[in-house]
Amino acid sequence: MTHSTFDLLARPIQHVLWDMHWESLRRIQVDAIRLLLTTDHDLLISARTASGKTEAAFLPVLSRLFEQPGESVGAMYIGPLKALINDQFRRLEDLCARAEIPVYRWHGDVDFGKKDKLLQQPRGVLLITPESLESFFVNRSSSIGRVFRDLRFVVIDEIHSLVGRERGLQLRSQLFRLGRYVQRDFRMVGLSATIGEAIDQYQLWIRPKNPDNVVHVNDKGEQKRVLFGIQTYETLHSDTESQDASRGDEVEIEQQVPAPLVADILRVFGGKKNLIFCNSRGKVEWLADSLNDACRRVGRPAEFLVHHGSVSKEIRLYTEQEMRGPRPATAVCSATLELGIDIGSVATVGQIGSCLSVNSQVQRMGRSGRRDNEPHCMRVMLPLSRQPPNADLVYRLYPDLLQAIAITELMLQRWVEPSVIGQFDLSTFVQQILSVLAEHGGILAKPLYMRLVEGAFGNIDQRVFGEVLRCLGQQQLIEQMDDGLLLLSPRGEAVVHDRDFYSAFATPQELVVRHDGRTIGSLSALYLPQPGDHFLLGGRRWQTIEVDVGRGEILVKPATGKKPPKFTADRERDIHPRIREEMNKVLCGESEFNYLDDTGKYFLADARTAYRNAGLIQCPVLALAANTCLWFTWTGTSVQRTLMLMADRAGLRAVDAGIAIQLAGPTHEVVSALAAEAGRLTSADDLVADLPMFGWRKFDCHLSEELLRQSYATDMLDLEGARSKIEELHCQCDGIKSIR
Predict the structure, then answer these.
(1) Per residue in 98-118, pLDDT tens?
(2) DSSP character for 286?
(3) Each residue of 122-140: pLDDT tens digit?
(4) CB atoms within 10 A of CB 478
(5) pTM given for the model
(6) What would the DSSP string read from start to end of 332-391?
(7) CB–CB of 444/484 below 8 Å?
């Protein structure tokens, strides 16, 4: 070990490392130990999965807590998942035991006795989720000062999964609020494997008033070997008009799990520990069942397990335990296993269909090769239907293939989506207003405003604040006394003390699925099965006995029939413009990709030929008829959304096709109309001025349409990006009257 750094650690922590037979410290651990123990800097630690980030943070933190015992919880670890907290609890117990530093978990699955022990003797390390911290403010406000007054360190794991989202804004607000109870500024440490180049955004989030105090520690010098490939599987082309409508969802999922794909997975993944990611929970269930059915037919053990948010906690824990155990097992999963839950060593990561972001692909690939001598190994498996010459051009370009290649190219360039922290999220603002009122019992408007705006909501002015308060008053959630004191009304009290209040994001209503008193999982209330229906859940086949909406449960029995379960679609993050731009670059270029198999190369060549033959390299607009054209925008979701609204205002009857927009009118008239509309608009607010507006975030239902329009225009639209795209189109098509 590097003795000068090792000697900075407290003696019990040194003994733990000796007991674990550590021969040396990693570079990020050396840097983190020095910075946390000899300076007052905050840290942002970015390193690949299983590179020792947790130890980099906690070796010095625990050393400081041992040498300078505090009068309350000294360090708080914030994780995005309860499962991740449980994993880190097991790891920290070993480090803390020798130093006699207590470590506690606090979330919904922890029994009251253990929580009460922390409340009685607050010391050591607390592991908690943002939702449980919110509950602490609402239900334990009288204990906050005693539990946290000597807090010195806050460690935020998987920080990339929080920043730029509702939970990140909620957490940033909570940390500002917590600062009022703490004797001195606590140090902040952020951990992530995928933060990309936008370091300044994370530094600003961690320490808004002094971002220069946040030092970035990374492991750029530590590279691992990577085995990566994109494999394509040709499926039968189907005419959707001729499909049996009652089997539409089943046919779609079956097409995405063709027999050759199942055979390849059995051959490559069988007998090992692996993860296979799907982009929907329905595909997880169908693929796992198809694989286990194939195993049974050839006399092999069924070794494919399921893991997603709609199966019970017991099934998820069973899958995690089996993955850590000695027997071969592959977890077919949604994004629930994307983050760093400990499931042991994974040989290969599979991905069915293209990932939806570069961040996800990097994170998922990093789940393999955790040991130093093992490579990262990932297979992206794309079921593709060969498109006939008369198919719509959008489908003939095979967007899923282009997206998979583009995301891989950006990953090789070491680029990931940057986080955006300047949100105008009035939904989370409402939640925090109600939470502060619950925390204090009552508060005047001015200190309430200062507490939130000096915290996480600096872009909300007094006018908007006043409008939000008026909306909450009209909704009878709050009331104001004659002396100006703001209080929760009885209805507001009911909202705040509902278990669903603590999360900043919306969760759909679901019914619990039970067999013989045992919980299997849950299904969306929007897609309930009928008695006698068959469906897959938890990796098994079930038949519905009874649906009781009043009790919120579905009773089932084991069955042999199967049908894909329907789940509410997960809310996806917007696709970044850079991904679509890279897709266009792939399509218009001539580069070969050695990670792409022969079938994929054929599909790519076919797409390139179709695009060139349509004359779209020079001007990306195709005339479909005399008064209809198709504009290939190749831009991100927020710009595309803005272009759609602009086109509708210009009377062009826009239809969104993902990578393109269908517009009414000949090319030259469309280009002129869009340019004129771009010139008329003064702000994104103009685009939504006359639109009926419905909430899309959790607490939006408490806001007026005017506020929702302002929030939508700020967070969901990109007027400058749209103007730039229209200007680019005008230059590309200048002088071209029409494209035939």
Answers:
(1) 889 999 999 988 888 889 999
(2) H
(3) 999 999 999 999 999 999 9
(4) 22
(5) 0.93
(6) EESGGGTS-------SEEEEES--S-HHHHHHHHTTS--STTS-EEEEEEEEEEPPPTTS
(7) yes
